[in-house]
Each structure stands twice: as structure tokens, then as C-alpha cells.
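Hi there,

I know you've been waiting on this one. I reran it after we fixed the sequence typo, so this is the corrected version. Both the input and the resulting structure follow.
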Amino acid sequence: MVLIECPHCEEHIELEDDAVGLFSCPHCEGEFEWGEETPSSNVMNEYASMSHDHFLSHPATRITVGSTVATVFGAMGIFTGILPLLGGLFFSELGLGSLGGFLILTGLFFFAIGGFGIFVGVKIAQGKLWALVTSFVLSVLLTLIQIVGWLFSEDGCAEYDFWTGECVETYSAPFPILGFLLFVTLAGSIGTLLFHPAGRYQFD
């Protein structure tokens, strides 16, 4: 402890040895400053602040993640929507208008999802927090869909009995390792930006 004299009322006040900052006198409630920060701590704080600010102002990370999100979701929407769309046009030509119309609407729905994914990716690159949260939720859901779809998939038939038409040998569906790794990696990258302070403050 250190004993000092209040500059206002001249009463004695006890402070800690390493006390630094603005204090209020318990006798007259007058405010006064005491102590100084060491030069080394000031230099380190300034250096840390400069490094942190430089990282926050650098847009390369969010642009990279945003471009990846736009590419993945855009490609997924196109490739999942093109087959139903072509199938719908084919069945419409055969006179099956109801089935063809349903498939066309399904294809357009997947195209819309892909377009929304591209829009979200662009907004991530622009630093929008809602887009980052949306893409993280979608990536996690798609990862879970990969796992649940594999767990509840039915076994395929490897060999049929020609005479009875029954399946005599089955096989389990392979785990969708590529899709799983894709969406896990995407969710991890987005989650790093979302939950790490240095990445989180790039977004508003």
C-alpha cells in the first residue's frame, strides 16, 4: 500500500502500490489522477491495437469465403435443378402436362435456391452479418442432411434371382464423403469468421 495526500482536501488516502488511473477521494469526493503506465505496456498495447485493426480492415478473408459460398450454392442449385427442368420439358412434350409442370417447378425452385446462395455469398463479401449467419446455418443443415440421408438410406440390391425376381444379395449405400467434407469445411470456415472476434468484427 502507498499513502498519498488528496490534492483537494489534503486528507491521507491509501492506494495499492500498482494503482494507476482516475480516483475519487473518500473524504471530499474530489477526483484526481495517480500513477502512470509503463512505456513498455503502452508500446505493446499500441502494437496489438495496430495489428488487430489491420486484420479487421483487411477484406480478403470475407471476400474469399463469400466467393466460395456463392460458387458452392450456385453450382448446387444449377446441377440439382437442371435434371428436373429437362425432365419436365420432356414429359410435357409427351402429353403428361401435370407431371411435366411439377418437375419444371421443382427445377425452378432449385434454381431459386442457387440464386439465393449466390446472393448470400455476395453479401458475405460485402461484410453483412446476416448473410454470414444464414450461410453457416445452411452449411450445418446440409451437413446433417448428408449424414441423416445416409443413415436412413435403403440397401441396394447387388444380385437378383432370375427365376423368383427376389434380391439375393444387398449392399449398403456408401457414405457421401465428398459432400460431407465439402459442407463441413464450408461450415468450419464460416464458423471461424462468425465466432472468432477478429473475424466477427469484419461484419456489420
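Quick highlight: Helices lie at 39-56, 60-93, 97-125, 129-151, 177-195, 197-200.

Best,
R. S.
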